[in-house]
Amino acid sequence: MIGLDWGSTSLRAMRLGPGGEVLELRQSAAGASTLHGRAEEFVAALDALIPDWHAGSAPLLACGMVGSQHGWREVPYADCPADEAALLRLAVDVDWRGRTVRLLPGLRCNGAAGAPDLMRGEETQVLGALQLEPALAPQACLVLPGTHSKWVQVQDGRVGGFATQMTGELFAVLRQHSVLGRLMTADTAAASAEAFEQGVAAARDHGEAGLPNQLFGVRSLGLAGRLALADGADYLSGLLIGHELRAGLAWRAARGLRGAALRLIGEPALCERYARALALFGEPDAQALSNTAPAGLWRLAQPGGLR
Amino acid sequence: MIGLDWGSTSLRAMRLGPGGEVLELRQSAAGASTLHGRAEEFVAALDALIPDWHAGSAPLLACGMVGSQHGWREVPYADCPADEAALLRLAVDVDWRGRTVRLLPGLRCNGAAGAPDLMRGEETQVLGALQLEPALAPQACLVLPGTHSKWVQVQDGRVGGFATQMTGELFAVLRQHSVLGRLMTADTAAASAEAFEQGVAAARDHGEAGLPNQLFGVRSLGLAGRLALADGADYLSGLLIGHELRAGLAWRAARGLRGAALRLIGEPALCERYARALALFGEPDAQALSNTAPAGLWRLAQPGGLR
């Protein structure tokens, strides 16, 4: 089968073997947000990336922002709790040169203050984690760090609910556009583990002062000469991830998941940062899983008969 | 006397009468951040704005970022608790065409997580408030909303301590540079009181979910069609101010100021927003004071004999 992990900023196409193994992977920058919501541009993106994968008749299965309001075609959200069947029921088919591309829905649940919470693409990574580690299915807390981090409750093989934290986006806009960024050097190569852990500890021990208060500390520590220019970004990263962990671990407790397995899913380097921060919060056992989307697409192809 | 309220982005010069009244006010965009830390540019800014105020021998008194690291000359911070005398002791004199300009220091205190907290200019506004309303001097909680809001403890006629909240800057960078801003119309004329209060209430009732989580609600409510494009900015403003009030009111309680007078100092329209938000937090009596810098400069001129 052919799987498409089609996010906002990138398209990853993969040919999966009979056991779900990745036979071939190709990637392009033709993310959904770059294609202006025009079907012909999505078609052209596939033409450009996988022209030689065109032969064959099985549908391609696609997850991510490709199914958003400004994607190839809008696919509604499935409501939590949701399993594979719930996702497949809402999938929408589009046409690529006579072949079917099946667009998967995202997931929706009730968030704080009556706001809905939403994901598109991460549900497939979550199902991939369950495929790779079946012991997680009865109950688990999965953390997917990123631009919009997701904290996910797995319960009885379904996604029970989740909570988004805009940590990565806050880091990017504060780093690039706020007064804090002016106190940081462009050189991020020499990451400071110490400054990062100092930021995490500040959030852990004094987070009740509020994030908007502690953010000012990045500036005042710099002005006071107590935080080197080269370390400002790491301190800020630690502060933001620390605030995510405060809220996320409280969320986990409120969902009754304190004793459940905790897993990180995402880029190894980012998961490593989160693992270090979690250890400072007294959670040293969070293992990381990476690149779970292929296994998720393979699992979703099973009940739908796409393989 | 001549007072200078010289911030990052603007310079306001005022001639004050014998009772502290403003006889004349002139303003320019020659803020300290635009003058490259060069003394000659600060001199030229005064040349351009008040050439005809040059006659006379009394020193001019200046507060704000003019005394920062990248100002006319760096003036150290006075440590809290601090009164007028403490400020004047650290003031630094510079020369403007043979006349003395006395640069006031800022204030420093211990903030959360061992980070220092800092202000430059607001201390003069605080002293102005005490000048205009002497009953505040024994004990008060003063809130100065803005890019970097300040919550200030007044105790026994001195500034006992304070806490900064980067609310205004967070609003600006999120509005202009994040995914949230893309869901907002440029038209901010038609402010929605309802969306603002909805944001305040979300922070008040569910703030423990964390600001980075609730920020995502601005997006998800918009995607779900439950927040109009024109209302997104007001909801975001309410959410951020609500989180400031959560942390600020907890700070006030921790400083033992729960029963003390609460005053807002700043632009009337912004103070009005804060007053509405405070009312939703059960604090309906926060009166506002505006333009207190002249009274503060006048008060500071008294012990130093500048008048």
TrEMBL record, chains A, B:
User: Which keywords appear in this protein's UniProt record, sorted alphabetically?
Assistant: Kinase, Transferase
Which Gene3D superfamilies does the record associate with it?
2-keto-3-deoxy-galactonokinase, C-terminal domain (3.30.420.310), 2-keto-3-deoxy-galactonokinase, substrate binding domain (3.30.420.300)
Listed name of the protein: 2-dehydro-3-deoxygalactonokinase
Q: Which domain of life is it from?
A: Bacteria
Where does this protein come from, organism-wise? Roseateles saccharophilus (Pseudomonas saccharophila)
Pfam families (alphabetical): DGOK
User: GO molecular-function annotation terms?
Assistant: 2-dehydro-3-deoxygalactonokinase activity
Any GO BP: D-galactonate catabolic process
